[in-house]
Amino acid sequence: MKYYDKLIFELSKPGRTGYSLPEVCGKCAGTDAIPATLRRTEQPKLPSVSEVDVVRHYTNLSQMNFGVDTGFYPLGSCTMKYNPKINEEIAAMPAFGGIHPLQKDVPGVDAIYKGMDSALAAITGMKHFTFKPCAGAHGELTGLMIIREYHLSRGDSKRTRIIVPDSAHGTNPASAAVCGLDVVVVKSNSNGLVDVEDLKPLLDDTIAGIMMTNPNTLGLFEKDIRQIARLVHAAGGLLYYDGANMNPLIGTVRPGDMGFDVMHLNLHKSFSTPHGGGGPGSGPVGVCDKLVPFLGVNVSGFSGNFGVILRAYAYILMLGRQNVKLCGRLATLGANYIKESLKDCYKLPIPAVCKHEFVFDGLINDGAREGKEGAATLDVAKRLLDFGFHAPTIYFPLLFHQAIMIEPTETESKETLDDFIEVMRRIAAEAAQDPDILHGAPHNTPISRPDETTAARNPILKYWDACAC
Ligand SMILES: *Cc1c(COP(=O)(O)O)cnc(C)c1O
After folding, report:
1. Residue 351 above 70 pLDDT?
2. Cα–Cα dist 89/106, whole Å
3. In whole angstroms, what is the distance from residue 167 CA to residue 195 CA?
4. Ligand 1, pocket-test mutation among 77, 164, 265, most atoms within 8 A of CB
5. DSSP state of 131
6. Cα–Cα nearest to 420, from 452, 388, 394
7. Residue 371: per-residue pLDDT
8. Measuring CA to CA, how many Å separate 214 from each of 81, 202, 373, 419?
9. 3-state secondary structure (DSSP) of residue 98
């Protein structure tokens, strides 16, 4: 029996325990003082298990999950890099972890916020930051509210439309809608960049601004950004920078110098907080000089996710001015190395030099022939799990039908990248010979292909929902 075949409740044997405590009466323990209405009337439904049952059960469960601490995790757009453990130690220090959110006058904490503000200002070319937003999308909403407030403060109430490129991350149009702005889509050209000719006719006095990601979601640098900034500013709009993926540019180019007015960073991507599974995050928003008066928009209580900000500060100070620049360069080198090593097996729709990530559009030879269905991107992703690699991001961005978006990050060695390349080549060869090997993958994981829709729509999250007891 494998430990993960059973729930901890199913391992339970009446009378088995992992501790021994002396019997105490309610009077001695003081529990008699609790009013009867607040006391339990029956024993809690806890499993009766030994200590070794508990340790093995949970240790085995932890091994079923894939994490960046167990293997390479090239999930494009997510920056799943290895995060130095010292950041965790610092964030867990009682002097920081024990502070109550309502506590005032904690000079050390103030100094950390100030230090982060000036570090991020130096890295981005913005004037000041607010640390309240707790995610990238939350930062986008904050930034858009600042843009709206700015226009309203000038009596410019017609500006209710925001331009978003068709390659944008899905959160961009969603945040704009939450902010009450109407989204206008600007197309990408055949090089995967914002089409300046398509942009020009969209610019009028109803435009609040444009949201851009640079490098964009294809991992490409928007080299016309200065011209775009001039055009949008001339029309009275502002430029919003989605800096969730700023890592390749850190220390090389600053959004402020490109002409952006407002931006957010994802500290949980670029600045080393482990993430995934929904949190915790931090999406600080920076603004240029003229928008500083609007930085106080109220988007959350307290001062954001302090633990995440602290990790990011430790990371920035540890790397220092010189080394922080290396991160982006190494991430860029790794991405281009993988791209060039695999482009004879996987379709590369835009063969340009990429930044920290790039997109393939499925297999060149997917093995499809008379009566045999070829291997799709989903099959490649599933097969990778058999070799101990997490799948890249798939079917995003939506510009291609079979998108595979690969981001190796700066923390992987050449040996790891070579292993990944070898496995991707092997999978391509399998597909060409017999795509059914891929259709049935993964073969070596505890579960193979769950019904993802049902799992997402009707998740069973509690043991008591799953059984009739
Ligand atoms: C991850 C990401 C976001 C959203 O960040 P969350 O913290 O998940 O809300 C926005 N834009 C881009 C480009 C991203 O990669």
Report:
1. yes
2. 20
3. 11
4. 77
5. -
6. 388
7. 87
8. 20, 20, 37, 29
9. coil
Q: What is the pLDDT of residues 33-45, one digit of tens each?
A: 889 899 889 988 8
For ligand 1, atom 15, which residue shows the shortest CA distance?
77
Residues having CB within 6 Å of any atom of ligand 1: 77, 135-137, 169, 171, 213, 217, 242, 244-245, 266, 281, 283
Q: What is the pLDDT confidence band of residue 466, given thresholds at 50, 70 and 90?
A: low
Burial of 101 (0-12, 13-18, 19+ CB in 10 A): exposed
Per mean pLDDT, which range of 182-196, 223-237, 345-359, 448-462 is the poorest?
A: 448-462
CA 173–ligand 1 middle distance (angstroms): 12
Q: Contact 303/102 with Cβ under 8 angstroms?
A: no
CA of residue 283 to ligand 1 center, whole Å: 9
Q: What is the value of pTM for the model shown?
A: 0.88
CB 212 within 8 A of CB 234: no
Counting ligand 1 atoms within 8 A of each CB, the residue from 171, 249, 265 with the most, and so the one to mutate, is: 171
Q: Which residue has the tokens 């702005």?
A: 181
Token pair in block for residue 41: 């009337």
Based on C-alpha coordinates, what's the Rg of the chain?
26
Contact 287, 295 (CB under 8 A): yes
Do you know the residue count of the chain? Answer: 469
β-pairing, 358-361 with 403-406?
A: antiparallel
Which tokens belong to 190? Answer: 């055949």
Cβ atoms within 10 A of the Cβ of 155, count? Answer: 7
Task: Return the structure tokens found at 371.
Answer: 């009566």
